Amino acid sequence: MTTTYHPPPLPPPFHHTLTPNLTTTSPIPMELITQGAEAHLYKTTYLSPATPAALKIRPAKPYRHPVLDRRLTRQRVLQEARCLVRLVREGVSVPGVLAVDWDLNSNSNSNSNSNSNENGNGNENSRGEGQGEGNTGSEDNGTEAKAGNGAWILMEWIEGIALKEVFRGWEASLKDNNRDENTAEEQAAAAAEERVKALLRKIGVAVGGLHRAGVVHGDLTTSNLMLRPTPSGQQSGKGEKVEGDGDEGEIVLIDFGLASQSIQDEDRAVDLYVLERAFGSTHPRTERLFGEVLEGYRGSYRGAGSVMKRLEDVRMRGRKRSMLG
Amino acid sequence: MIAIGLESSANKLGVGIILHPDDGSTPQVLANVRHTYVTPPGEGFLPKDTARHHRAWVVKLVKKALRDARVTPRDIDCICFTKGPGMGAPLQSAAITARMLSLLWGKELVGVNHCVGHIEMGRLITGSTNPVVLYVSGGNTQVIAYSSQRYRIFGETLDIAVGNCLDRFARTLHISNDPAPGYNIEQLAKKGKTLVDLPYTVKGMDISMSGILAAIDGLAVQYGLNGPWNDEDETQNTPASDEENARPTRADLCFSLQETVYSMLVEITERAMAHVGSKEVLIVGGVGCNERLQEMMGIMARDRGGTLHATDERFCIDNGIMIAQAGLLAYKAGVPTPLKESTCTQRFRTDDVFVKWRD
């Protein structure tokens, strides 16, 4: 179980695609940025070597029943693409969609090249048969006709850092500052807290903008919120106004893998609840400031008030029921 | 140091005795006995009757545990009991027993959170250091990771627990509750082939199970598979020749239910692993001894370059030894429970416990 992990081979057309390296003649492979729960994220380029792009590959999940897996993968990648297109149209800050393939199995007969996973980024002609290929030969084999091969979506590349890192950095600095009784330090800490509060309100506004556009995210965590630095000398044009520190940048929502189009209070409230819980578990020291997010959300669009009321119900539900038995 | 643990939060009554050697070597399980209150097919266990069962058995089990462990009450350092969460009346039987033994033997009490008991036992048995924990049982479904002195809940069910969902479906189909409804569903599911479409409800790291239960209960009624079995049903289990028009069998429904809800569990666990950047996963709780769930989780962990830790029914299903283990850790860290506070409660969140014994 302790062997090093090799990501599955890339699906076509990306199995040939290499990021051109301008300094040397030898091409370097695409860079695996992160392995999320459902997808592998690569950094690549689109049309010109100067335009970075994010390639999100959803390999087949060998642990899932193939029929269920194909249904979910297809449904989710399409939802993701549709939601993103809609949000871009509505002027919400999300990555734009460049291309999508929702069912890798459908465009050719599977030529089972079982070149195992040794050459993760290899340029051979292996059709990423999901991660299970070449391994234990699980139950997929019987129902191969129905099994999916995964899907991919190519999106605009978002510069910046995940808010998870921002809050982690802040919480780490808190730990240090508690020791010092220095007033200057305290003032700096207070200023930092104000900046964090402003950032939290901005998150609320961003989520409100998303909901106003008729989309719920389904997996709001601080990993899925990016802080894109605003280019200097150029205020962020549309949507949110940058309040407080202009250098903080703009909130960009990413990873719409569980998103859906909904305008129901219930779905919106659950979205907020999921975010609240993510704060509680990931950033315990920031949890007490979560009210700022709701503050930002409240003023962001007209329906926000009734969603906040619904949130109360959702909170009660989640917490109490979990304690039975 | 030696601790005795009493567990009675649901229909299992467990007594366990654990030894933590003074030289700091690996703790030893000296005794682990259990008796389960089993109801007839189609029925669940009611708090009142379950508590009566526990009261009738607890003295016998404590005596047997002491015999198994070859210790006398004098050797024991503390008496640990489940403080919660669980069903009220059954919880009280262990709490009362613990108080009685404490006064009788003159030993200190330690009230233990049931979920923390599961986690600590899982960590001890598997030797995993800092895993993402999936805790799945009849009353709880949580994805947990440790961070600054607390077991934080990253995801959980928004309505009913996964074990509850399985148990109630077993009731609909009149599947035997002996040894456990979930076990019998697992055996029946091995014969299932066709996957029926069920709702799939994942909300970030949370899940919802009540809609799935309603959907599959509805299917069972639609195809006349609910209620007591008769011999005809048993022989009809072979599906019709044309797959399209074949009616699902009981086995198909069990298979579909398992595949769907376990996929959801593995998915939220994987999301939590990706979120916290962990490579280890530990499954605890009664549903955790399901081999299909373990298999799916193993594949997921392998594909993330991680490892799966799981235990068998002795430690997965509610038991006294886990209460003794978690209680003794708390006792050594200096947090005994005074007699006045030795109450029990139905609602006791995992993240309410201050974990003094970990860094």
TrEMBL record, chain A:
Region annotation Disordered: residue ranges? Answer: 103-145, 224-245
Q: Where is the Protein kinase domain?
A: 27-325
UniProt lists compositionally biased (Low complexity) regions at 105-125
- Annotated GO biological process: tRNA processing; tRNA threonylcarbamoyladenosine metabolic process
Can you tell which superkingdom this protein's organism belongs to? Eukaryota
Q: Where in the cell is it found?
A: Chromosome, Telomere
Cellular component, GO annotation: chromosome, telomeric region; cytosol; EKC/KEOPS complex; nucleus
The EC code for this enzyme is 2.7.11.1
Q: Which reaction does it catalyse?
A: L-seryl-[protein] + ATP = O-phospho-L-seryl-[protein] + ADP + H(+); L-threonyl-[protein] + ATP = O-phospho-L-threonyl-[protein] + ADP + H(+)
Ranges of Polar residues composition bias in the record: 224-235
Q: Pfam families attached here?
A: Kdo (PF06293)
**Which GO-annotated molecular functions does the record name?**
ATP binding; protein serine/threonine kinase activity
For this UniProt record, give its keywords in alphabetical order, as a comma-separated list: ATP-binding, Chromosome, Coiled coil, Cytoplasm, Kinase, Nucleotide-binding, Serine/threonine-protein kinase, Telomere, Transferase, tRNA processing
Alphabetical list of InterPro entries matching this protein:
Kinase-like_dom_sf, Prot_kinase_dom, Tyr_kinase_AS
Leader sequence residues: none
What sort of enzyme, by top EC class, is this?
transferase
The coiled-coil segments of this chain are 174-202
Q: What does this protein do?
A: Component of the EKC/KEOPS complex that is required for the formation of a threonylcarbamoyl group on adenosine at position 37 (t(6)A37) in tRNAs that read codons beginning with adenine. The complex is probably involved in the transfer of the threonylcarbamoyl moiety of threonylcarbamoyl-AMP (TC-AMP) to the N6 group of A37. BUD32 has ATPase activity in the context of the EKC/KEOPS complex and likely plays a supporting role to the catalytic subunit KAE1. The EKC/KEOPS complex also promotes both telomere uncapping and telomere elongation.
Q: How does it assemble?
A: Component of the EKC/KEOPS complex composed of at least BUD32, CGI121, GON7, KAE1 and PCC1; the whole complex dimerizes.
The entry's family comment says:
Belongs to the protein kinase superfamily. BUD32 family.
Task: Please give the PANTHER family that the UniProt record associates with this protein.
Answer: EKC_KEOPS COMPLEX SUBUNIT TP53RK, NON-SPECIFIC SERINE/THREONINE PROTEIN KINASE
Protein name (database record): EKC/KEOPS complex subunit BUD32
Record organism: Aspergillus ellipticus CBS 707.79
Automatic annotation (TrEMBL), chain B:
Q: Which Gene3D superfamilies match?
A: 3.30.420.40
Give me the residues that bind substrate, please. Answer: Y135, V136, S137, G138, G139, D167, G182, E186, N290
SUPFAM superfamilies assigned to the protein according to its UniProt record, in alphabetical order = Actin-like ATPase domain (SSF53067)
Q: What is its main location?
A: cytoplasm
Q: Give the EC number.
A: 2.3.1.234
Per UniProt, residues of the Gcp-like domain are 29-324
Q: Which GO terms describe its molecular function?
A: metal ion binding; peptidase activity; tRNA N(6)-L-threonylcarbamoyladenine synthase activity
**The protein's name:** N(6)-L-threonylcarbamoyladenine synthase
Originating species: Aspergillus ellipticus CBS 707.79
